[in-house]
Amino acid sequence: MIELTDILSEFMIQGQPAGIERTGSGHINDSYRITSATARSPEYLLQRINHRIFTDVPMLTDNIMQVTRHVSNKLQSSTASPGFVGLNLIPTRNGLFFFKDKDGNYWRMFNFIEGSRSYDLVPGPELAYEGGKAFGLFLSLTSDMDAGHLAETLRDFHNIETRLAAFRKVCADDPCKRVAETHYEIRFIEERADEMHTILRLGRSGEIPLRVTHNDTKFNNILFDRNDKAVCIVDLDTVMPGYVLYDFGDAIRTGTNTGAEDEADLRKVDIDLDLFAAYSKGFIETAGEFLTETEILHLAFSARFMTYIIGLRFLTDYLAGDTYYKTHFPGHNLQRARAQLKLVHSMEENTAAMEAIISDLCT
Ligand code: GN1
Ligand code: MG
Question: Whose C-alpha lies nearest to ligand 1, atom 9?
Answer without folding.
Answer: 27
